[in-house]
Design brief:
Elements: E1 2-7, E2 13-19, H1 21-24, H2 30-44, H3 103-119, E3 123-126, H4 136-146, E4 151-155, H5 160-166, E5 172-176, H6 182-187, E6 190-194, H7 195-206
Parallel strand pairs: 1-3, 3-6, 4-5, 4-6
Antiparallel strand pairs: 1-2
Helix pairs in contact: 2-3, 4-5
């Protein structure tokens, strides 16, 4: 079993916690990580790009000129794709880009990125973060004390004061343990887990 130090918000070591090797000391599977990140990014695409075909462009009901005798090429509508202002051929239409990968693959990918953060010593465990009031300044002081630059906080339960204190800080993101995902873990330089969230994460990934 792996062990990690637990700190308080004053950066003092207060305890050690035992981590599951199956979650925090597993082999990194880059293929599954790639597949899951690709899925997440595809799901975030708005898919709202749209163009009009010749049947959707306004106008063009009248034949521009008679079929024969003008010396020009025959034409039936000014909304033809070869005309300026005409319709678009095979242009994009609104669509849903999202797709799913198997649950087992998603779990494996999350285990891989968590193990990578732990091996690279880019994961910190904090016992708790008591706040008596909403204060961005107080929260930032703790972030600066630990030297975090781009950081993801994972909490076990909703904490309104804590979440509101962090939401205006650039490069700081806070999510609940149920929402931890591969892209957010990879996208941060440092991962901070609150001690109560560890058992929830291990329970979800080993079930």
């Amino acid at each position: 079993m792996a062990f990690a130090d637990v700190y308080d918000i004053e950066k003092k070591k207060v305890a050690q916690v035992e981590l599951s090797d199956s979650v925090f000391a597993a082999d990194v599977n880059e293929a599954t990580v790639y597949d899951v990140v690709k899925m997440q990014l595809a799901s975030r695409r708005s898919g709202t790009s749209s163009t009009k075909g010749r049947s959707e462009v306004s106008g063009g009901g009248k034949k521009p000129w008679r079929q024969k005798g003008t010396g020009r090429a025959r034409s039936g509508s000014s909304r033809s794709p070869i005309w300026r202002g005409g319709g678009i051929v095979f242009g994009p239409k609104p669509r849903d880009y999202s797709y799913n990968v198997p649950k087992k693959v998603r779990k494996n990918a999350l285990i891989s990125v968590l193990s990578q953060k732990f091996k690279e010593e880019k994961m910190t465990i904090i016992r708790d973060f008591p706040m008596t009031e909403i204060s961005t300044k107080a929260f930032k002081n703790v972030v600066d004390l630990f030297g975090f630059k781009k950081v993801l906080f994972v909490i076990a339960d909703d904490d309104v004061k804590l979440m509101k204190s962090s939401r205006n800080l650039r490069n700081v993101k806070m999510i609940r343990s149920e929402g931890i995902n591969v892209y957010d873990v990879l996208n941060c330089e440092h991962l901070v887990l609150f001690e109560p969230s560890i058992k929830k994460i291990e329970g979800a990934l080993l079930s």
